[in-house]
Amino acid sequence: MKSMYVTDPGMVRSHNEDSVTIVKNKNDERLLIVADGMGGHKAGEVASSIACNHLSKRFENLDSIGSKLDCANWLNENIKFINEEIIKYAKDNPETKGMGTTLVLAILTKNFLMFGNIGDSSGFVYKNGKLTKVTEDHTLINALIKTGALTDEEAHNFPKKNVLMRALGAQEKIEIDKFSVETDVDGIFLCSDGLTNMLNLNQIENVLKDKSLLMEEKLGKLIKKCNSRGGTDNISIAFLLKEGDEQL
Question: Residue 187's domain is classified under what CATH number?
């Protein structure tokens, strides 16, 4: 397997509030993370770092994540801790009031592939040159579409597209949505909305399936395309791809 992650501040923001990483534990299991922080005075940067650093350190020290149930329980336990840590930091540092972060992750073992998310960063599986979204955005617009309160046409012109209904640090109790998917895929692709707000799935897929480019060149090209379109937000990507006949 080959994996890589990148992050870029974009063309508008003065600093980068995203955090992204890919780590493995002692059993060669993988954890991919993208967190998109929010809040003034670099508070979003702190919130996303708390989430990313805590999860990656805990995962790296595991002998194994265990079964699907063990994995789900591990996520619940650590998400609860991270949420409490972000809330505590904001209370101790009043200038960071309102800080929080989205989180999307994927855990890959020999037996299963599990995604988790809070907020509007996205998790996809990649197969035969196509991206299929696994996670569901916790946004106001998505909630309105699901309940039938908005038509597709109304959603296209909806003014509050980025209003989050769920984020780490935003409420005392938080749940992470978990999705178990088949491991019979070619890769895993996570990103912040700084990518998906600038490029559609077809544009992303065209870059990923370009066999003339190395992985780092593909991710670099995606960043460049976002920035050439205005780069209105920080852009982060974590990508894992199997090689040859290798099985995920």
Answer: 3.60.40.10
